[in-house]
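Review session, final week

We close the course with one last complete record, chosen because it touches almost every idea we covered. It is NAD(P)-dependent dehydrogenase, short-chain alcohol dehydrogenase family, a protein from Mycolicibacterium rutilum with 236 residues. Go through it on your own first, then we will talk.
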Amino acid sequence: MSEQPKVAIITGASRGIGAALIPAYRKLGFAVVAAARSIDDQHDPELLTVSADVSVPGDGARIVDAALQRFGRVDTVVNNAGIFVAKPFTEYTDDDYDAVTGVNLRGFFDVSRSAVAAMTQQGGGHLVTVSTSLVDHANSAVPSALASLTKGGLNAVTKALAIEYADRGIRANAVSLGVIRTPMHPPSTHAALARLHPLGRMGDIDDVVEAIMYLEQAPFVTGEILHVDGGQSAGH
């Protein structure tokens, strides 16, 4: 009988970093549950796609339930789904607040709460959360208080969960990103965005995927906020 594969849940999996993580985890031998608001089915028996909006109460738990029903376990959750809105603080609207906190906080909470319950029963697991280095190194050129409010909280809860669940074999880590070259950034902005990083370039999706793969395969690392930001968090 073949050994049951480990299972990774990836949110925000329809494009960008999330989409790139699917083949990376499959290469490690994981079955993957790929969740996004809109995502196409794929012809891979070890890949389950789930259409869900993590900002909606209950959708996060539904993603985890789908993983358990299909594969019987949850070993890793990559909380990749996120919203970033850059505005002067006083120009944020109630709708902005609801959108950003809904995905960044509610999404993390619902998915992770259900996943950690399953991981506790099976004896271990791993949470990885995508954050931003603007939490550590605010920039007046990129006013983003809602990102700091939400992602700063996710950095803190990453450390809290790492300690709370260390004796149950569950690790929690985060990757804290600079600006990554994804379709959300028009090419006309790339030169200016590159200058935000001491290394003088934007990050690539592969930089993020490789960092997450490191954390996945680093059993002695937990409570880590791994900066993948071209030196941005260190200063200018």
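Two points worth writing down before the exam:
The CA atoms of residues 69 and 167 lie 27 Å apart.
The chain has one domain: 7-228.
Good luck, everyone.
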